[in-house]
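call fold(seq) -> tokens
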Amino acid sequence: MLPDLSPVTDALGWVVVGLFLAGIAADWRDRSAARTITAVAWGAFGLFWLLMIPFFSIEHRSIVQTVLAVAAVPACLYVARRLAAGHDSLLVLSRAVGVMGLIYMPFEAIALFHDTLIELVAEQTYAGLRALGSTPAFEVDEAGLRNTFVFPLESGGEYSTRIIFACTGIGSMAIFAGLIAAVRAPIERRLAALVVALSIIWTLNIARNVFIAYATGHQLFDHAALVGPVMWLFGLENPVRVSFFVADRILAQGLAVFALLGLAWIVVKLLPELFVIVKDLAYLLTGEEHGLADESSNRIDGD
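ret:
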């Protein structure tokens, strides 16, 4: 059994957000101090992702999230090093991360926000299931939240699946809200980009939840060719869980990466100022400047 690291990661999450916000505040007065504080924030962020790896890989059993967490550790440390070396344009990306945390953390920590969001998403997911002709029992879980779908199985038993905080899409919404808030652009275009991004994320997330719940409850992937390999890959003991892991851990999480990349392309088209962040991400991946800033400047002037 692994030790429960959630108290440490929860506390560290607040520390990381606080450091990023302190860096944003410092940038109004002292660029050197902002650079130093933000570099420390990125280093702490790398530690956060390092501590999250056991959760994603062993407890959550998510290949996609494990790979992303593993990649995030050296990426955060590299950003910290580049900031410390004076690559000041990374402060824009850092502002985005600070705003992301400012949006995400209250929803995770404050029960009113946390529970209301879960139940709202569960209600809409249930409506989607009913639209498909699926009518599982819609029940309250042990925490008092109406977020659980109970499906009868052909074998005579039942299988329940529930909407949890990770199913709400708030993480993706916080990412795009942070990116949009971090750049300097007319408020009208930023609001338009925000509305488009949040609307698409919310819709796709409800569709994802409906798909996972339907596939799980109706055992869509209960096929002999899949059961053995999936049970081995994820260390499952109950074959009834195979449909959930195929629907969620393989299909939904894999497709989500491409969906977010497509949404990023749409948002950048609406808000070309985001090219400065694209430029920095390209620099972090390749170590070379790509001149995207000049392209974005030309496009802004043409608006």
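Residues 290-303 have pLDDT under 50 and may be disordered.
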